[in-house]
TrEMBL record:
Pfam families tied to this protein: ABM
SUPFAM superfamilies: Dimeric alpha+beta barrel
EC main group: oxidoreductase
InterPro entries (UniProt xref): ABM_dom, Dimeric_a/b-barrel
Acyltransferase is among the record's keywords: no
GO molecular function: heme oxygenase (decyclizing) activity
Record protein name field: Heme-degrading monooxygenase HmoB
Keyword Kinase tagged: no
Entry keyword set: Monooxygenase, Oxidoreductase
Length: 100
């Protein structure tokens, strides 16, 4: 295992422009967070309202330190109204098991 982590947060939005704007706001707030390698906004090809913010972290410890820190909620606040409430758990955390 590499130690790297991917965090997926599921969102739903009828207005793609609104979630894209929220994504850019949150991403600007996240610049310089230790251990964050980057993130992407993905749109489902099967559900026109389905979106995922996928972030890449150098380790689970780096992600947990940020998640438990004081800036976590403020940084992601623009995206919070779009959280996909259709799902019982609107996020997932995966550790990279293998990569090429």
């Amino acid at each position: 295992m590499t130690g790297e982590v991917r965090v997926l947060v599921y969102h739903a939005a009828e207005d793609p422009a609104a979630i894209e704007e929220a994504y850019h706001q949150a991403s600007n707030r996240l610049q310089g967070v230790p251990g964050l390698r980057g993130n992407e906004l993905l749109r489902s090809v099967h559900d026109q309202n389905g979106f995922v913010v996928a972030s890449s972290w150098e380790s689970l410890e780096a992600f947990q330190a940020w998640e438990q820190g004081a800036t976590h909620r403020d940084s992601t606040a623009p995206l919070r109204p779009f959280r996909d409430t259709r799902l019982p758990v609107p996020f997932a955390i995966y550790q990279v098991a293998a990569a090429y």
